[in-house]
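Lecture notes, part 5. Sequence design as translation. It can be helpful to think of inverse folding as translation between two languages: the language of shapes and the language of residues. The source text, in structure tokens, appears below.
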């Protein structure tokens, strides 16, 4: 089991229901390229356990969500390692997923990607990117983006509730960037290109402000 600090990296129950279907090949390549672009921008630092911080999600037409796997290592992202989340149940804090094998689990931030990317297609984005930069009040003020309330432990129901409250207070599409207190940023877009354009603009704004990367959890 992957751990961060004193607990497991993925804190919800998972159930593997077999390999991904072949219909998501183009979407998987799109998400893999977005993950690599995030890393190239310096948004996915290597943590003490040698794994990359940062993750991403992409909504599929079927209503499922592709996400990056938990425990990614540095290097080019293999689309075959991505995980399809079939469902996420907040009441039981569990998800069903498809992937290469039963040992490949979805990212610990799956609850947030599922929350941001599911629902009526006309009212939600298609791609979400989470990186480990810009996590403080001062950075949120300088970048002029919303920040969550109390700090919460990642991959927990409290973390999802805090993120949900922030999305309700600053909804998409009027807002496309949010900061999770002491954890990092969350960017969304109508597709990967749009999300990456927003992230690139955010990074340029941060550079003008002289902001430095902020450490966070995996």
């Amino acid at each position: 089991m992957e751990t961060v600090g004193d607990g497991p990296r993925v804190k919800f129950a998972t159930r593997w229901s077999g390999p991904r279907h072949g219909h998501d090949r183009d979407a998987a390549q799109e998400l893999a390229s977005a993950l690599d672009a995030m890393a190239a921008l310096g948004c996915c630092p290597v943590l003490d356990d040698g794994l990359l911080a940062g993750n991403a999600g992409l909504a599929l037409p079927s209503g499922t969500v592709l996400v990056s796997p938990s425990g990614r290592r540095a290097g080019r992202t293999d689309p075959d390692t991505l995980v399809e989340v079939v469902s996420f149940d907040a009441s039981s804090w569990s998800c069903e997923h498809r992937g290469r094998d039963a040992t490949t689990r979805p990212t610990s931030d799956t609850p947030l990607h599922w929350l941001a990317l599911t629902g009526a297609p006309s009212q939600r984005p298609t791609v979400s990117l989470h990186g480990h930069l810009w996590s403080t009040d001062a950075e949120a003020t300088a970048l002029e983006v919303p920040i969550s309330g109390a700090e919460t432990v990642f991959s927990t129901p409290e973390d999802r509730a805090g993120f949900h409250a922030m999305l309700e207070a600053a909804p998409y599409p009027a807002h496309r960037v949010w900061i999770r207190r002491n954890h990092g940023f969350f960017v969304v877009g109508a597709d990967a290109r749009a999300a990456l354009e927003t992230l690139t603009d955010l990074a340029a704004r941060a550079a003008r402000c002289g902001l430095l990367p902020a450490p966070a959890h995996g």
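The translated text above is only one of many valid answers, since several sequences can fold into similar shapes. The longest strand covers residues 83-89.
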